[in-house]
Amino acid sequence: MTAPEPGWPSGSLGRAPPIVGLRREHEVLTVALETGRHVVIEGPPGTGKSTLLRDIARYAGRAVVFAEGNAELTPARLIGQYDPAQVLAEGYVPAAFTDGPLLRAMRVGALLYLEEFNRVPEETLNVLITVLAEGEIAVPRLGMVRADAGFRLVAAMNPFDTIGTARVSHAIADRICRVVLDYQDDAAERQITTAVTGENGEVVNFAVTLARATREHRDVRMGSSVRGAIDMVLLLTGLARRRGEDGMARATARDAAHAALSGRIRIADGCDRSPESVLDELLGLVWPEDAPTPLPSDGRTPRDSGAPDGRGKANGLPPQAGTGQRRASASAVRRDRGGNHARRTLGRAERRPARRGCARGAAGRRPGRCGDPPGRPGPRHRPRAARRRAAARGPDLLPAGRGRAAAGPGYPPPWRGPG
Ligand SMILES: Nc1ncnc2c1ncn2[C@@H]1O[C@H](COP(=O)(O)OP(=O)(O)OP(=O)(O)O)[C@@H](O)[C@H]1O
Ligand SMILES: [Mg+2]
Q: Whose CA is nearest to atom 1 of ligand 1?
């Protein structure tokens, strides 16, 4: 298990809690910015992209201009625009021009932090090409604006995002470096949750275990980030106080789990289940109905416990093919430990035969059908059309040990094509 690096000198100023882990990414990003590179930070939600950038900016005393990438971010909104009323009154004078985030960052040499990079329309991204290459931009009627030497673009994007996203052209990709974050490991998530909530012990262990388990469930396309665990701890402790409960009660934990996690998990395409039913299933594994408290957690998940291809490691690139046998999921292990509980969720390694990283076609991705009893994988459970597609595709090629992050279910290629 990779232990989090407690309180390493992060350069955080003020009262911001110290950054947990991410030492390697911190170094790489710092050096990239120092050497004049532009960077995209890529990772699922809640993996610390903004936290990392803020920390580096604070440490370096750099100003950050934030911009949210979305379909409405037109070139004019990114660059800036003339105020029509002022133009009518005074003509195209510089005073009538309001800088957008790009020009603001360029003029003062700040970091332009552009979130949801793959949601930015292509015509807006094209504006950045000359800026990244030449450090200047020609604005109609305003003239040429040169970037201060300190200007850098730091983009952030979520590779799991499949809705409203578009291709980032090679012209852009060729001008920026890439830093990849993955979900934090179990210990780091506990540390973060404790730092943010001020809570500790069983409630944190339970919330983190449940949030992490959502990422492993067969019917979930995208599980909860550490934000889910943080909210769950706050809701659970708050509800317990309000209800006058001493310690954790299962019904309260369920209420907190539904509120904190159900909106955060995305059910797999073609799967007709509610998030609540998935959460109830996972709750049954982590805290069986007949148990007075959650099953003891030793803070280990299978991949945290030494497998080289762990996806939950904050400092790892997506695991590479053929790096070893994946182990069973946390829930499966926990179930085994529980002993007498009949139902058991199989780990992905058990459920899924070796296969190639694929698009997330529902049937092609999973051996069993959504909602099938766990443990009954195999071609005969695939819908007929999927079986035909699978037969046409030929044998599955993903070597055992390829993690979700690298295989199709989780990690599409970094620069996705449209659709
Ligand atoms: N490595 C970390 N150290 C300390 N706190 C962290 C770390 N990673 C995440 N957090 C905490 O988790 C929460 C989410 O982190 P952050 O906003 O940086 O994620 P993000 O990757 O930018 O997410 P998004 O893609 O949704 O913008 C914050 O409350 C932050 O404090
Ligand atoms: Mg962010």
A: 20
